[in-house]
């Protein structure tokens, strides 16, 4: 598990000494210890640098490739677009769009909700 998420070399370290991105990786490892078939990733990339987002994204992609279904709740759009097969967009709790990433990018309701008119 630690090898998969990139923490094998820190296996004996205290969590108090981990960086923010390593703490996110540890959270993923804890969730994966239960061998889930479904993982809900809720803002796992919030507050991370671009390079750190890429690290977490690679882990999620690897998990998905191993058969773990992942529901990603995220505001980092480049990660959402790269990872997702299907996207549901909510505005004030109401679903305003659903479909593949390319369709969502061209959806006028999404554009209005997030960029204004």
Task: Provide the fold topology.
Elements: H1 2-5, H2 20-32, E1 38-42, H3 50-65, E2 69-73, H4 77-83, E3 87-91, E4 94-99, H5 101-105, H6 108-115
Parallel strand pairs: 1-2
Antiparallel strand pairs: 3-4
Q: Specify the overall morphology.
A: elongated
Let me know the number of strands: 4
Main pleated-sheet profile: 2 strands, parallel
Query: What is the percent of helical residues?
Result: 40-55%
**CATH homologous superfamily label of the largest domain:** P-loop containing nucleotide triphosphate hydrolases
Q: How much of the polypeptide forms β-strand, as a percent range? A: 15-25%
Structural class: alpha+beta
Quick one: CATH class of the largest domain? Alpha Beta
Please name the CATH architecture of the largest domain.
3-Layer(aba) Sandwich
* Mean pLDDT reading: 92
Low-pLDDT stretches are: none
The number of helices is 6
Radius of gyration over all CA atoms, rounded = 16 Å
What is the strand arrangement across the widest sheet? Answer: 1-2
Could you give the order of the helices and strands?
A: HHEHEHEEHH
Describe this structure in words.
This protein has 117 residues and is of the alpha+beta class. Helix content is 45%, strand content 18%. It contains 6 helices and 4 strands, in the order ααβαβαββαα. The protein has helices at 2-5, 20-32, 50-65, 77-83, 101-105, 108-115; strands at 38-42, 69-73, 87-91, 94-99. Helix 3 (50-65) links the parallel strand 1 and strand 2 (69-73). It is elongated, with a radius of gyration of 16 Å.
């Amino acid at each position: 598990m630690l090898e998969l998420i990139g923490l094998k070399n820190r296996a004996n370290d205290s969590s108090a000494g981990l960086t923010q991105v390593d703490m996110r990786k540890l959270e993923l490892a804890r969730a994966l210890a239960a061998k889930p078939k479904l993982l809900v990733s809720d803002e796992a990339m919030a507050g991370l640098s671009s390079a750190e987002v890429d690290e977490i994204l690679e882990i999620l992609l690897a998990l998905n490739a191993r058969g773990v279904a992942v529901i990603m709740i995220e505001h980092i759009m480049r990660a959402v677009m790269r990872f997702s097969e299907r996207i549901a967009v909510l505005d004030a709790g109401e679903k305003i769009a659903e479909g593949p990433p390319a369709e969502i990018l061209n959806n006028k309701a999404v554009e209005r909700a997030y960029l204004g008119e």
